[in-house]
Amino acid sequence: MTAAAEVVRLESTLDTSHVRARQPPLSLEAVGVSKRFGGLAALDSVDFKLTPGSFHALLGENGAGKSTLVKCIMGFYQADEGKLLVGGQPITVKSPKEAQRHGIGMVYQHFTLVENMSVAENLVLSRADVPRIIDWKKEKRELEEFMDEMPFRISPERLVRKLAAGEKQKLEILKQLYVGSRIVILDEPTSVLTPQEADEVLGMLREMAYQGRVSVAMITHKFREVVAYSDEVTVLRRGKLAGTGKTRDLTPEAMAEMMVGAEVPRASLERRELEGAAKFFELDKLSANDDLGLKVLEEVSLSVAAGEIVGIAGVSGNGQDELVEVLAGQRPTSSGSVRVDGKDYTPTRAQMRQRRVRLLPEAPLKNACVGNMSVAENIGFRCYDEPPNTSLGWLVRGSALRSRARAAIQEYGIKAPGPDAPIAGLSGGNVQRAVLARELTGEVNVLIAANPCFGLDFAAVSEIRTRIMAARNSGSAVLLVSSDLEEIFALSDRILVMSEGRIVYESKASEANMADIGRHMGGAHH
Question: What is the pTM of this model?
Fold first, then answer.
């Protein structure tokens, strides 16, 4: 037996969870990494260095190459050029399992847990060396010892589906430490957490890095988290390294400039005060069921005045999606009513047009567009059957729709090959700009916006927030449903919190406290 084979044999017989968890953290280096997909250079000679025991933030707009770099490190992709080093030694990684053998683990944006299994079962089954017959008595004893070494514990007996989102995220991190990861990569780890849960999870990881247990690299869009928790920052732009440095030496403005270039787009969020604005959009004790017939909205009442933005905050999965579906006419109500300007309102296409109610749904390509239809046709959905877009009362005039689309492309800065291009070929930000052009053209009495900037890059976010604020300032009543608290605070005049299908908290935005909002998002109202 060769020496290498003997090491592999010994490793496979070790209880790796405990031995590796106590080993020192490792450095990780990507040197000159390039990756092409056909004619597109997703990564162009990128360098990245994670020092042992540090907490490193990886920033960049959508399409900057962050995910591609991480996928090359984890073995999902093979780099075309460049090399990877762990602990100063060159490595080849052809799969996530190989990455795990080198001590590299990843916590993904969406949970990878088996909901109907216990914490213990999830942990044991995550190992590379699961025995054919599992001695659960022995495993649970060792799991208790493992938990005793960790800065937090989750009972091994608990079912995963009964854990809160923050506990599930902690379990994902525990899983990496249990299998012996000494380098942990996090992909947008706080997107499903309340601010308190996010602070707890990131604070715990930073503490573990400082204790010399692990090295952490985090992909994030949130400058607050970067400033609060990271030691170092690397910024990618269009597949190239745009900058790197110590977090303490960089301002959010400097990081934003690295991400998008010298012209940092700024949202124009100046508020015009409208005198004596009446309640324009009202929900009264609105209730609805989910697809299984279980109550998902419970007597939701709220009002939005003309020239006001009311933001609904909440951890995703607490009825916000269903509320938007009800207001879009995609889900029936079981009781309650909606009023626009004091009159009962039903969200049909005819009433939406007549009462000037407009909608910006989440994931617009899926919920607000027909992908294989043209930009012009998608922009024309609200008005294709009205003059001057019709002739003889029924024939759609393509030339009129194209002319309207060309004007929208110009005004909203939509990057598209032309009005006849299929909308599915546009980037996310440009699809959202096209939907904005459709929904905000003409007079708008009520605008319902659901996660309008989700997944969009820095420039698109600034522009879309500016457009929403402009609608408010021109007298629209805006209901903003968003899981991004920073967006809620940036845009809203009043903030409501939704939890378990009910409105549980209300505050003026100027008096709102992030900690109070977060507590109610997490269920503190019980």
Answer: 0.70
